[in-house]
Amino acid sequence: MEYSVKKIVEEGEKILKKKGVLNSRSEASLIVQKTLNVSKIDILTNNIRSVSFLKRMSINKNFCERVRGKPISKIFGIKEFYSYEFFTNSNVLDPRPESETLVDVAKKILRKTKSTINILELGVGSGCIIISIIQELSELRIKGTGIDISESSLKVAKKNKKKFNILNLHLLRSNWFSNLKNKYDMIVSNPPYLKTSDIEFLDDEVKKYDPLVSLDGGKNGLNAYNEIAANVKKHLKLGGVICLEIGFGQRNYVNRIFEKEGFELILEEKDLQDIPRVVVYKLK
Ligand SMILES: C[S@@+](CC[C@H](N)C(=O)[O-])C[C@H]1O[C@@H](n2cnc3c(N)ncnc32)[C@H](O)[C@@H]1O
To answer: How far is the CA of 3 from the centre of ligand 1 (A)?
Structure first.
């Protein structure tokens, strides 16, 4: 027996809606799209007239996983970020739309440069930030370095490096600066910044499928900023900058931490929700 795509999406929408999944229509459509490996247009125009029994079973299995709380990105192992598709899994933080602000800021600053630029990303995760920067600024000569404390997230970053065929990106394990000797023109980071006590209140989608090490910023959420601020000086070239993503309401705290270490705020950027999201410092 064969099934029409339109009907499958409608049924999926009902199942997801009943279980409280927001945007049930678009999520159902996306699940069908990804399982069948077809485009959104194919679904919208009802271009795929029929789906085999086996494919239908796979789609149902994916609807069930979604209903059990697994995000679509983690079902299919892929997440879009800055219009690129990155590999992801439960060993890395899913790339977040608000982190695209960090890429925008890096582009804004680096566009003015000409010579070879050395960029370091601290806590590289899937690699989505540094890889997007390198992709977006392909006219520049960028030498990238990405570090992470988590070996399993470095595996995902390496897979993404290969996917985008990035040659000039060195990925290594390090506890912040512990294994680094070089100096950089730009350091970027989206460190873990949630308060430990807030983690139990996160949605299951985050709590169960994003690793704790990518979320937990310690008692006041600021552990990583303190650690980075205390050690970053010797890793910045003359005139070098550090660009950081920050959490909701952390702007003044992070400013104080960096000012105490002799840095000045030279730029800040809000995300699409109008929340201060990225701060940039250089040494006074
Ligand atoms: C919020 S996630 C950001 C991941 C990725 N850059 C992104 O924006 O999607 C923070 C990352 O920092 C890493 N991390 C946590 N503590 C670390 C440490 N002490 N040294 C290096 N990396 C660390 C985590 O493993 C995680 O990949």
So the answer is: 44
Cβ-contact 169, 161 below 8 angstroms: yes
pLDDT at residue 57, as a whole number: 94
Tell which atom from ligand 1 comes closest to the C-alpha of 175: 20
The CA distances from residue 143 to 55, 135, 152, 258, in Å, are 44, 12, 23, 26
Single-letter amino acid code for the residue at 77: G
CB of 176 sitting under 6 A from ligand 1: yes
With the most atoms of ligand 1 within 8 angstroms of its CB, the residue from 85, 150, 194 to mutate is 150
Q: What is the per-residue pLDDT for 185? A: 97
What is the structure's pLDDT at 238? 96
Please, are residues 253 and 276 in contact by the beta-carbon 8 Å criterion?
Answer: no
Tokens of 177: 């600066």
Determine if ligand 1 sits within 6 Å of the CB of residue 132: no
- Give me the pLDDT at residue 88, please: 98
Low pLDDT (below 50) residues in the chain: none
Rounded Cα distance between 214 and 145, Å, is 19
Instruction: Report the distance separating Cα 57 and Cα 63, nearest Å.
Output: 10
**Looking at residue 1, what is its pLDDT?**
56
Cβ 210 under 6 angstroms from ligand 1: no
CA 233 to chain centre: 26
Whether 267 is in the pocket of ligand 1, judged by its Cβ within 6 Å, is no
- Asked whether 91 lines ligand 1 (CB < 6 A), one says no
How many A from CA of 225 to the centre of ligand 1?
12
Check residue 230 and give its pLDDT. Answer: 98
Can you tell me the distance from the alpha carbon of 233 to that of 3, in angstroms, rounded to the nearest whole number?
62
For 34, counting Cβ atoms within 10 Å of its Cβ (0-12 exposed, 13-18 middle, 19+ buried), the class is middle
CA of 153 to the centre of ligand 1 (A): 9
